[in-house]
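Hi Q.,

Before the meeting this afternoon, I wanted you to have the 2'-deoxycytidine-5'-monophosphate prediction in hand. No need to reply - just skim if you have a minute. The sequence and ligand are here:
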Amino acid sequence: MAPASSSSDISPQLAPKRAEYGVQSGHPEARDNALDAGFADTMLQDTASQLTIAIDGYSACGKSTLARRLARQLAYLYIDTGAMYRAVALHALRRNIDPKDSAGVEALLDHTYLQFIAGSVAGQRDMHLNGENVAAAIRTMQVADAVCDVAAMPPVRRYLVAQQREWGREGGVVLDGRDIGTVVFPDAELKFFVTANMSVRVARRMAELKARGQDLSPEKVEANLRMRDHEETTRADSPLRQAEDAVVLDTSSLDVDGVLAAAMVHVEARLAEKQAARRSGKGANEGPDRAGGRQALDGEQG
Ligand code: DC
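Predicted structure with the ligand bound:
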C-alpha cells in the first residue's frame, strides 16, 4: 500500500477542513485544462456569468459521461461527487472498518483528505485520497458494494456536501450525483435529471464491466441496479429525487453526442437568460445561495 494511504500520516492540521482542499474554485485551472486538451470551442467567461449545473439520476443512465463532456465543452469545473463517496468507502475498507459502522466511518472523516487532481488523460481529473491517486481503486466491485452504506450516513453526507459546496461556490461548475439539485445546490441555474430505460442501463453497465474484465449475466446486473435504485431512493438522508425544476433527459435512444447536444440546448438558453439579466441589472444575486447553504451546513456540523 502506498504510504500516503495511511491516514495516520495526515497531521490534524491537515485534516480536511473543507475549503483548503481539492480543486479550488479558481476556475482558470479548469479553463487551462480545457485549453490544454485542445477544446477550441471552449467558452471563456468570467465566473459571474457562468452556470452551476446539477446532474442527478440513477446509476448507469449516462450522468457522468454527460457531466464530464459538458464541463469540458464549457471549460467548467467537474465534480464527480460519486467518486467522493467511493473514496470514503475505500478508505474504510482499507482501514478494516465495516462500511456499516457509522461511528467508525465518521471517525475516519477527520483523516480523509480528498482532492481532484489533473491526471494522465487530458482535461480529466483523478480522485486522490490522502495524496494517493485512487481513480482505479474506487471502481472495484468491493467499493461498489460498500459505498451504498457509506453514502447513507448523515455525517458522511454533511462532510462531503460541505466540500462540494465549497468547491462549487463560484459557479462555472458541473456536479453529478444523486442530491445535487435537491440538497447540494438547490438553487442551481440548471438541473438535469438523467434517465434511461432498464434494458439500456443493463447493457451500458455490462459494457462498462466488460471493459474492466468482469463478465456478469444481464440478470445479475439488472438485480444489482434495481437494488441500488431502491436503496438510493428510500434512504432517510438525501434520497434520490427529481428536483421539481429539473429538465428530464431520457438518454435511452441517444448516443453520447446526442445527449450532449440535447443538454447544450438548455445550457445555451440559460446562459443567454443569465447574460440578459446581468445586462439589465437584474439577477445580480441570482444563482445558488452558496453562502447561505454553507452557513446552514456548518451550523449542522457544530
Ligand atoms: O455515481 P456513483 O455510482 O459513482 O456513486 C457511488 C455511490 O455514491 C452510489 O451508491 C450513490 C452514492 N452517491 C450519493 O449518494 N450521492 C451523490 N451525490 C453521489 C453518489
